[in-house]
Design goal:
The chain is of the alpha+beta class and 412 residues long. It has one domain: Orthogonal Bundle (Cytochrome p450), CATH 1.10.630. It is built from 17 helices and 15 strands. The strands form five sheets. A six-stranded mixed beta sheet has the order 1-2-3-11-8-4. It has a three-stranded antiparallel beta sheet with strand order 5-15-12. Strands 6-7 form a two-stranded antiparallel sheet. The longest helix has 29 residues.
Length: 412
Amino acid sequence: MTDRAVHIPFAEMDPTMRSLLTYENNGAMDVACPWAGLVDIVRDTPVVRWDMGVGFFSMADVVAVGNHPAVVSANPVTHETMGMGSREPLIPLHLDGDAHRHYRKLIDPLLAPRQVALYEEGFRRLADELIDGFIADGEVDLQTRYAIPLPATMFMQIFGAPMEDLQFFIEMKDNILKAEGLTLEEREIEGRLSGDRLRVRLREILAERRAAGTHQDDLITKFMTWELDGHRFSDDDIVNVMHLFVIAGLDTVTSSIGCLVGWLATHPVHRQQLFDDPALIPHAVEELMRYQSPVNVGGPRWATEDFEVNGVSVKQGDMLLLGWWTANLDPAVFTDPLTVDFTREANRHAAYAAGRHRCLGSHLARLELRVAIEQFHRRVTDYSLAPGADPQYKWEGVRAPATLPIVFSARQ
C-alpha cells in the first residue's frame, strides 16, 4: 500500500507547519488570522513525515492515532516528557494503559458536569466582582483584568492552594510554557528549572496540610485521601497530579477567554447575535473553540510498535504530533470550516483533544468560558478593540493575546 504521508524536510516546511510541529517561534502563529494556511495544510498535506517524526492534521487521523493502543504519551525508551516542566511523568497525562485508566477513574468524577455545576454561582459572582473594578472606566485590558484573574482565582479556590501562591504559580507556569526568545532546547531547560521550583512549593503545601490535620472541600484534600485497592498514593504521585493541574488550570481557560472575546471584539455582527439572543452563548463558545482552538497541537506521542493507521505506516519509536486546530478546520468534517456559525449543528470538534487523553477539565472550561462571556455581556451594551489596538497573539503551544485593550459601553 502506498503510504499517505508526505515527506517534507524541515528546512523546506512552510513556517506555519514548522510552528505546529516544533513550537518554533517564527511568528507564523502570532498573527490574528492564520486560518487560511491551516486549511491548506489539512487539505493538501494531512499527514507529514519529517526528520523528527510524523504529524497528523485531519480529524480522522488525529482521532485514530489518539485512540490507538500502540500510541503512548511518554517516550517508551527514555520515559522523557516534554513541555510541562517536569522530570517525571505527570499524572494522568503521561501515563497509559491500566495506570492511566485507574487515575482517570479517580479524577474524572472530580470534574464531571454535575460537580462543576456546583462552582457556577461562585464563578459568576467572581466575574461580577472583577467587572466592578473596571466597569466605570469604559475601557480595559481585558486580558490582564479579566481573562487572567477570573479562571486563575477560581482555580485556586477549587484546587485548595493558598491564594498568596497564585502569582508564583503563574510565574512558574509562564516560565514553563511561554519562555519567549529561547530555542526549544533552551525552553525545555528553563521549563524544568521552573518546574523544580514549583514542585518544591507543592511538596511544602502537602506538608503544611498534613501538619495542620485539616480536611477541606478541595482537590488537594481529595488527592491526599485517594485510595486504590486499599493503598494510599505517595507524595510523589500526588505532586505529579498537582503539577499537571497547576499548569493546565492556570493557562488554557485564560488563553481561551482572550481568543474568544478578542474575536468577538472585531466581529460586530456575531457580537450582536449574542446580545440579541444570549441563549446562543453556549453554542458560540463551542463554535469559537472549534475555530480558535487555543491548544493547537497534541503531543508529542510515541509509537511502541510498528502499525498502520488510515494508510499511514508508523514505525516503532516514531514521535507523533496531533493537530487539533487543523482537525477543527477539516473540510471533510465541517461545512465551510472558515465560516463562524453560532447555529452550527454538527460540531464535534477536538479543541479539548480526542482519544484517551482528552482534556480532564473540559466540562469546567466550558462552564468558565460560558459564564465569562455571559457576565460580561450582561454588564455592557457593546464593545470593540480600542482605537489603534493591534493585539499580538503569542503562540507557544497555547495561543493567546498578550494584551486585549477594548472600549465598551456600560449597561445602565
